[in-house]
């Protein structure tokens, strides 16, 4: 799937609540803040500012949630992936690390609050998240996560083999990290609900309005689209992996990594009694990541990363996904049919933590979410809105840095890292005597 092709093959596109009616920008308008990109980050920024009486114009090249915000797998897990919390503190330094940790670990409360306040129809379920231990030797690392996250106020706990099987319905796990605040959504439904909320709070949202140019004009910024323009005091770029133009070299600040998501036919009522019986989100804990959950119709929605033939040979890819799911849940007796299959793109950078770039006086950009999706995009609006409200740089939760070009090795580094994790997982599982899934 190309970056800007329609996404009719997506389950979310087929089932999300309709988008609010919006128009293309075809005139010259004035704003205090112009935001480019109507994904979670741009829309939550607009929402925060509009509630405070700031005049906001939000520009989107396609439709609200068209990029990663509408294509992701829909799990909402307020954690960090690549780094432990001590590693993150060392990487970012204080006080920024502690501020970002606080925002990220509390992000699901923010998501839940917005969904409830604006009555967003998005299949929101907050029944927890399990990162499973796929082998006995993984248990100490999971127990460390419990201690690290609980120390900053998260509500997590270690679950043993019996309890993780009760929660997941899978006999393949040796324990797990249970994050009680984890949840899942129809991500496009959530994005469209945020768009309605933005408009409800008084911000102007224009779709089909790609930014072609930006330049100074009379001490302000002139942001030009195909048929209109915005004159604003401040400009925020929040286009992420779907950045096209707008600001020179912004699209070089990250490298694209693809991910695919697929949805099965609805499982039978009997199967749902024993497969994910508590409607949680599951990360199977393997180096070759497989994350899955239900949607409202009882379909299993699963995501993986392309690797080798997987993602290119679609028959083989479906077989890999089916074999993994039925290995995890032998109680599924029917043939798995993947009714929906779609791709998304991640804006990867080596820190796997968002980067806030100062592009010019009064202009910033935020990229590099690196696949963190729903909770991260939702909490970043608080940071960007504080910048727009003139909170001093030293008090923000992200450092403002000069625009950086992503290093060349990021073109292949994430894929090599995934292969390394898969190999290590295979080796340690063999050493532990743990059963390996098909296509390990």
TrEMBL record:
Can you give the residue ranges of the FAD dependent oxidoreductase domain?
A: 32-387
What are the entry keywords?
Oxidoreductase
Keyword Amino-acid biosynthesis in annotation: no
Give the molecular function GO annotations.
oxidoreductase activity
| Gene Ontology CC entries for this record | cytoplasm
- Is Cytoplasm a UniProt keyword of this protein? no
Q: Can you say what this protein is called?
A: Oxidoreductase
What organism does this protein naturally occur in? Rhizobium oryziradicis
């Amino acid at each position: 799937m190309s970056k800007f092709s329609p996404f009719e093959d997506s389950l979310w596109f087929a089932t999300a609540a309709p988008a609010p009616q919006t128009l293309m920008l075809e005139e010259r308008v004035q704003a205090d803040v112009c935001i480019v990109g109507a994904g979670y980050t741009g829309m939550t920024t607009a929402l925060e500012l509009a509630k405070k009486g700031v005049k906001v114009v939000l520009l989107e090249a396609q439709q609200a949630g068209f990029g990663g915000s509408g294509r992701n797998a829909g799990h909402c897990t307020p954690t960090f992936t690549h780094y432990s919390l001590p590693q993150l503190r060392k990487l970012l330094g204080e006080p920024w690390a502690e501020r970002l940790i606080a925002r990220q670990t509390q992000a699901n409360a923010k998501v839940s609050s917005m969904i409830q306040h604006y009555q967003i129809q998005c299949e929101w379920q907050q029944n927890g998240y399990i990162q499973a231990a796929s082998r006995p030797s993984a248990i100490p690392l999971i127990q460390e996560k419990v201690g690290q996250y609980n120390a900053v106020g998260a509500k997590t706990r270690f679950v043993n083999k019996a309890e993780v099987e009760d929660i997941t319905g899978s006999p393949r796990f040796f324990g797990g990290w249970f994050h009680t605040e984890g949840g899942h959504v129809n991500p496009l439904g959530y994005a469209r609900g945020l768009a309605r909320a933005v408009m409800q709070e008084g911000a102007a949202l224009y779709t089909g309005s790609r930014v072609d140019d930006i330049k100074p004009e009379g001490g302000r910024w002139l942001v030009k689209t195909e048929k209109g323009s915005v004159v604003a005091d401040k400009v925020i770029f929040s286009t992420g992996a779907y950045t096209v133009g707008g600001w020179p070299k912004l699209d070089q600040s990250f490298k694209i990594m693809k991910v695919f998501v697929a949805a099965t036919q609805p499982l039978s009522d009997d199967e749902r009694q024993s497969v994910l019986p508590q409607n949680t989100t599951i990360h199977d804990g393997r180096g070759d990541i497989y994350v899955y959950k239900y949607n409202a119709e009882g379909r299993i929605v699963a995501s993986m990363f392309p690797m080798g033939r997987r993602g290119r040979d679609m028959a083989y890819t479906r077989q890999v996904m089916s074999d993994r799911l039925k290995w995890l849940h032998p109680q599924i007796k029917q043939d798995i049919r993947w009714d929906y299959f779609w791709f998304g793109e991640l804006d990867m950078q080596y820190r796997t933590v968002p980067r806030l770039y100062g592009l010019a006086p009064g202009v910033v950009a935020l990229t590099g979410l690196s696949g963190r999706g729903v909770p991260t995009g939702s909490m970043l609006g608080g940071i960007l809105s504080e910048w727009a409200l003139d909170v001093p740089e030293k008090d923000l939760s992200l450092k403002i840095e000069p625009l950086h070009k992503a290093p060349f090795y990021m073109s292949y580094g994430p894929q090599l890292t995934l292969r390394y994790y898969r190999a290590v997982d295979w080796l340690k599982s063999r050493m532990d005597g743990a059963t390996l899934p098909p296509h390990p």
